[in-house]
Amino acid sequence: MNMLRKSLLLIGLCLFTTGIFAQSVADAGAKYNDGNTAFNDKDYAAAITAYSEALDMAKQAGPDAADLQNKIEKQFTSSYLKQGLSIYKKKDYDGAIAVLEKGYAFAGELNDTKSVKKFASVIAQVRSKKGDALRTEGNLDEAYAEYEAAIEIKPDCVKSFYGEGMVYKEKGDLDQMMDKMNKVVEFGADNPKAAKTVNAAKANAARALLAKSVEEFNGQKFDEAGKYLELAVNYKPFNEGTMNIFSQFADQGKEVPEMTDAMNKAKEALK
Length: 271
Fold this sequence. Notes:
The chain is rod-shaped and about 90 Å long. The chain is mainly α. The protein folds into two domains: 118 residues, Serine Threonine Protein Phosphatase 5, Tetratricopeptide repeat (Alpha Horseshoe); 116 residues, Alpha Horseshoe (Serine Threonine Protein Phosphatase 5, Tetratricopeptide repeat).
């Protein structure tokens, strides 16, 4: 009798457990659908909440919910990205970064290398934009910190290297400026999307170096003027505006014998 009762109890427990799992899978599916509805309505914050709850349910359900769990994880990842981008469009950089970094961490937990790379790229973009805004306001050190954070997550971030170059340009540190602008050229050379940034880096570096050359020239430090002129030419081809500055300088310096050689070399290099 005791054995019979034990058997019936075990059977009852098995049936009860199976019922719980089946209910959990159904609940997870329903919550997943809630997330999909919110996602389609572009209410990504609500979608994130729903997918989070659905994922917890699916995990509790075990192997029976494996396929559903994979679907939830993909949508969960997409929701983080979409929500981060929607916040970024409102220029709420900090809010966007917070959401995107959660998505980045989540994708890392899933070993989803494609999504990890995507999140890294977008986070770097947002931090670069935040850095630009801070630099425009004159907060150079804070701007630099944002550029550095962008480069940390995306080591070939052309826009952040450009931002750092501009920070050093504004600080008057031309050696560091050149180092950063050279990184822009290096990482952006084979990327058509980075062409505008590469051209801007060359133009700004060349103009800063030309300005320094003129400064040394006016102080009659002709050897130094020639050195900075030679460095400026490294950022050829000059755009129209930079070429006009060089032409004016060449006219000014053509009557100075000490500058003749440097000017002739620069003109030859720029042909």
